[in-house]
Automatic annotation (TrEMBL):
Pfam families found in the cross-reference section: GDP_Man_Dehyd
Pathway note: Carbohydrate metabolism; galactose metabolism
InterPro entries for the chain: NAD(P)-bd_dom, NAD(P)-bd_dom_sf, UDP_G4E
Enzyme Commission number(s) from the entry: 5.1.3.2
Co-factor(s): NAD(+)
Catalytic activity annotation: UDP-alpha-D-glucose = UDP-alpha-D-galactose
Gene3D superfamilies, A to Z: NAD(P)-binding Rossmann-like Domain, UDP-galactose 4-epimerase, domain 1
Keywords: Carbohydrate metabolism, Isomerase, NAD
Gene (name only): galE
Domain of life, source organism: Bacteria
Domain annotation NAD(P)-binding: ranges: 4-323
CDD domains in the record: UDP_G4E_1_SDR_e
Protein name: UDP-glucose 4-epimerase
């Protein structure tokens, strides 16, 4: 298939690019680099051994999006492009609505005009908020606690309406749990700008000496060791789920909303310990107050993905830490600045 990856220069998109090319697809990356580096394209070329078709594109520019689709034929779109910082979304909700919801509407409009009828959308476990029980199934109550989460929920709903209005249009909403790790080459990985919000990149930066110590947000949660429990998923397993979702859309001609997680809960301290082993170095930390908006425990019931996509996670916490550390130690400051 000829596939457009919107936001394909970002962390998850770059890994999905590698998997889709390996599966024999013809893949084009479109991005505005608002949260990524052009340096990723050279790395993708190095990994795949071929030039990376790239289109500069800002999804907020409706005319540019429509114009782009008018000159290109695609069988499917994988849509990663979004702003994703929870804290920032609370400070600047309109920017999040404009970029994530407005950008997606422009994309859907462009796809419709051009007759592109398959979409894989990056949703998030954030749509479950503070779940009533774990593991979380797809039919759990949906509830959002911040503007970022709301953009994901709204987009799932809008995409659902579009699918219902047009029997030919099919979408797979993938609800990612906590993506971590990197491609085994160490050439691509997560490269956050500024102070990392998420646990694994913070640990990586402590390990490589960019930060003194990790703050563990709360030691009094009702969990195995008092620290927050999440479902960390290796980004290469997650990348594979996109290829499987595209195959599903072609094969089954129907839409789907599915969890992409391992089904295993891992605490903050368990992840710190696993990372320390993988990197063979201490990770200094101190337990501090809980982070506002955090929840105790969230992990997936991934059985629907297994039944529908034939997908299950294969890589465990050890591989996640080993590969994250390979990326970080080979690229202490992230991608080279051009
Ligand atoms: P990322 O920021 O690394 O990648 C997103 C990419 O989209 C970036 O390259 C950015 O430049 C691009 N982009 C943003 N707005 C754009 C626009 N208007 N036009 C064109 N390009 C634009 O993030 P990621 O971690 O790779 O996440 C990918 C997707 O998965 C996002 O939609 C995110 O909300 C979702 N998600 C991520 C996580 C996570 O923990 N990383 C978890 C759940 C869901
Ligand atoms: C965060 C987002 C969520 C998003 C998800 C994607 C918030 C409130 N939620 O969730 O919307 O979908 O990322 O991956 O930002 N932790 C520390 N110290 C740190 C960082 C994190 O102790 O410096 C703890 C957290 O309290 C949590 C765990 O580590 O228990 C994981 O945190 P994080 O990586 O931010 O992911 P989520 O909280 O699951």
């Amino acid at each position: 298939m000829r596939i457009l990856l919107c936001g394909g220069a970002g962390y998850i998109g770059a890994h999905a690019y590698v998997v889709l090319v390996e599966r024999g697809h013809d893949v084009v990356v479109a991005d505005n680099f608002s949260n990524s580096s052009p340096g990723v394209l050279a790395r993708l070329r190095q990994i795949t051994g071929r030039p990376v078709p790239f289109q500069p594109l800002d999804l907020r520019d409706r005319d540019a999006v429509t114009g782009f689709f008018a000159h290109q034929a695609f069988d499917a779109v994988v849509h990663f492009a979004a702003l994703k910082s929870v804290g920032e979304s609370c400070e600047r909700p309109l920017d999040y609505f404009h970029n994530n919801i407005g950008g997606t509407l422009n994309l859907l409009h462009g796809m419709r005009e051009a007759g592109v009828e398959r979409l894989v959308f990056s949703s998030s476990a954030t749509v479950y908020g503070d779940p009533d029980h774990v593991p979380v199934r797809e039919d759990a109550r949906l509830q959002v606690t911040n503007p970022y989460g709301r953009t994901k929920l709204v987009m799932e709903e809008l995409i659902g309406d579009l699918c219902r209005s047009d029997a030919g249009f099919h979408a797979a909403n993938l609800r990612y749990f906590n993506p971590v790790g990197a491609h085994a080459s160490g050439l691509i990985g997560e490269d956050p700008t500024g102070i990392p919000n998420n646990l694994m990149p913070y640990i990586c930066q402590v390990a490589v000496g960019r930060r003194d110590r990790l703050s563990v947000f709360g030691g009094d949660w009702p969990t195995v060791d008092g620290t927050g429990v999440r479902d960390y998923i290796h980004v290469m397993d997650l990348a594979r789920a996109h290829a499987d979702a595209l195959d599903f859309l072609v094969r089954e001609r129907r839409s789907l909303t599915v969890n992409v997680g391992t089904g295993q809960g891992v605490s903050v301290l368990q992840l710190v310990e696993a990372f320390a082993q993988a990197a063979a170095r201490r990770i200094p930390y101190q337990v501090v107050a809980r982070r506002p908006g955090d929840v105790a425990e969230v992990y997936a019931d991934p059985s629907l993905a297994q039944r529908t996509l034939g997908w299950r996670a294969e890589l465990g916490v050890e591989a996640m830490c080993r590969d994250a550390w390979r990326w970080q130690s080979q690229n202490p400051q992230g991608y080279p600045v051009a």
